[in-house]
Amino acid sequence: MIRTFLTLPQRAATSYPIFLDAKIIEVLESLVTHEEQLVIITDHRVKKIYGTSLHRELLERGFHVLLFSFEAGEQSKTSKTKEELELAMLQAACGRKSVIIALGGGVVGDIAGFVAATYLRGIDYIQVPTTLLAMIDSSIGGKTGVNTIYGKNLLGAFWQPRALLIDLDFLKTLSQQQLINGLVEAIKIFLTSDREAFLMVCNQIDLLLEADSTTLRWVIQRALKHKVAIVQRDERESNERMVLNFGHTIGHALEHLSNYKIMHGYAVGLGILVELKISQLLGFLPQEEFNIVTDLFARLKITPAIIAKIDPKDLLRATLHDKKNLAGSTRYVLLDQLGVVRKKGEAFLHFLDDTIVLRALKEIR
Description:
Layout: E1 18-20, H1 24-31, E2 37-43, H2 44-60, E3 64-70, H3 79-91, E4 99-104, H4 106-118, E5 124-129, H5 132-138, E6 143-148, E7 151-158, E8 163-166, H6 176-193, H7 195-203, H8 205-209, H9 213-233, H10 248-257, H11 264-281, H12 287-299, H13 312-318, E9 331-332, E10 335-337, E11 340-341, E12 350-351, H14 354-364
Parallel strand pairs: 1-8, 2-3, 2-4, 4-5, 5-8
Antiparallel strand pairs: 6-7, 9-12, 10-11
Helix pairs in contact: 3-4, 5-6, 5-9, 6-7, 6-9, 6-11, 10-11, 10-13, 11-12, 11-14
């Protein structure tokens, strides 16, 4: 037997800018060249509001730009949509110097990023999130992917963008429901990392629901700071970054069972309530702190009534396809107090018996 080794140099550190309060056209002009082919990927809804005008403005400034879109919604986040986009790019002879502009919410960012990760074995892309949820969470950290019949985000890649551009003007066209959808992700980050910021959200919730730009900017900036720090310490989600999935084990299962009729933020909010209830039942989280969160979520109209018709046992079965599972067992994030994740040694996730999860589900229902 002959054995040899292939040794590669250590991967260079990745660094890219995050622009808050960016003016998209001006920043894009500083990030791309006229020799590069730009490919805007968006959904049909965002195309009408922003995509067509961005395409036109870039053309007027002398860039070579293509515009592709797909049906809006989580149901489009599939391998089929990804393949259709890739074939359209191949037909247009997009080469390795092409740069994708992911213009839209989390679905667009995840699909466009996944296309960038695999097209010609990897090309650059730029995240331009248009929803609060994408600005706070999904556009940061390079997680890309699509859903399958078995669950959410089970196919994907870690592929970091060239840059992230956050323009707060996009928030002016969001409904209050979409604002809440994003606020939950900020609340999730603060519950696991920043008690002071969480209490600030509680105190300023009326301004946030009115889309007050100063308060929203503060929330985005604070959430960005925490997520960036965690991703820098654990890019591939091997340990600490898993705390950012707080509420997502149950949340993703709820989305899947509802055929994505329950919006991501609302589903994650309910998942947070379940994991908080487990933390409280196990004697970690004080009852009064659990009540603070339930009171806030009630203000956001995130209550267990949303899942009244879902069988808890079906929900448990759906969690078996969660990405955080290990050896067929589901793992959860728990809290010792608001802003403090419970750890076991160096581990941030906990194996739980189904009985305690079912009890928590029944109690919050």
